[in-house]
Amino acid sequence: MKLKVYADRMSQPSRAVIIFCKVNGIDFEEIKVELSKRQQLSAEFKEINPMGKVPAIVDGRLKLFESHAILIYLAGAFPGVADHWYPADVSRRAKIHSVLDWHHSNLRRGAASFVLNTVLAPALGLSLNPQAAAEAEKLLSTSLSIIESIWLKGNGRFLLGGFQPSIADLSLVCEIMQLELLSEEDRSRILGPHKKVQQWIQDTRNATRPHFDEAHNILHKVKTKLAVQLSVRANSEMESSIKRVLPSKM
Amino acid sequence: MKLKVYADRMSQPSRAVIIFCKVNGIDFEEIKVELSKRQQLSAEFKEINPMGKVPAIVDGRLKLFESHAILIYLAGAFPGVADHWYPADVSRRAKIHSVLDWHHSNLRRGAASFVLNTVLAPALGLSLNPQAAAEAEKLLSTSLSIIESIWLKGNGRFLLGGFQPSIADLSLVCEIMQLELLSEEDRSRILGPHKKVQQWIQDTRNATRPHFDEAHNILHKVKTKLAVQLSVRANSEMESSIKRVLPSKM
């Protein structure tokens, strides 16, 4: 039975899993779980992942969630995945686990909360929270500095000084790609100072093309949609403020 | 050269690493990094872990931080660690990674923030934040419900239905043990409804005795110290309010 990947490409860890499968020639069926329709909370999907989150996979009798766990599993369970993605060497593997663990409470938390509280919230029926956005930006910028000064400090092009990407590069770069949804001003303020990070994103992209670009296409579409929604909202707010002002002048 | 473990037993992941080494007969040197003295931020320690956090290890040329990464490394690099701690079977291993990944943004975040914002903050020179405590309690309680209803739902005594503990049991139970620092009222309100969780804590404790109790001794000492500080603070506040009241009556 073919591997099933439950995903929404709007989710950065979903994209990491999809790209990993495609780059490594893992045969899989992609099953769309639409977050905007809250399909991840359906009883049917909760049979797959009781946490109600994407991505999740089903491989034979195994149901699995948490994208890092999925990437590690796929690297070990499918033949033909090159060693650099998740090296057999116990020390190199340890360093990858260390970066992936760090990711949860740092880059991930900062990036996801910043994107949510500056652009995504209204599309999910939530309010924007400028204070949460400000705190998230701090965590995000610190995380990018750490990546730049600690894990990309060597001569290698990838995390931990490697010359080929690992699952940690893929996971973290997909997270940062979520910043494509931001305004150009926000994005360049945050990413601008980190030249090595920018080069590393490009290198990871090049190493996983064309699958990387194909999986990220959705971000450009959604960005356009968000911009239209924003302008409609701004127009309707302007109209209602004109209506409020006009009667008082009559 | 002997394995070096840099730790403060007040840190729950530090205890998990120390207990793991002792239970598995791994020969190590424990090097205390006192969080209350901010030793984790010293230039010397940052040579070991640039993130300025404990635990961290040095094993030969390898410097490693993040407790889950450390536990996985130790299980693989040292002979004689029983398979149940970190099974060779790729599916069982995947489930352990999944629980450990989930831990970061759920149980860990809830428990650590609740303990910080109800009892620990003043000892670290910070203010208690009741709103953050309330949010943390919600996340903590949801996390305990998930452990009870999903991962302890089988007949096994440990996470994922096992009959022997894994590194995930050890990591998560050490996290929950941090609740020993709370008032009895808070602790029983939060843990009371979760009978399976209570039994699982006891089972993990039994499986790792006497090292479990020895590593957790510090919590009882610190709890007494916090209670004394609290009563001194309450007395001095009472005295100053009496002083404020008395002159106005005179």
TrEMBL record, chains A, B:
Annotated GST N-terminal domain residues: 1-82
Annotated catalysed reactions: RX + glutathione = an S-substituted glutathione + a halide anion + H(+)
Record protein name field: glutathione transferase
GO biological process, one term: toxin catabolic process
GST C-terminal domain span: 89-226
Family listed: Belongs to the GST superfamily. Theta family.
Domain of life: Eukaryota
GO terms of molecular function: glutathione transferase activity
Keyword Metal-binding: no
Class of this enzyme: transferase
UniProt keyword annotations, A-Z: Detoxification, Transferase
EC number: 2.5.1.18
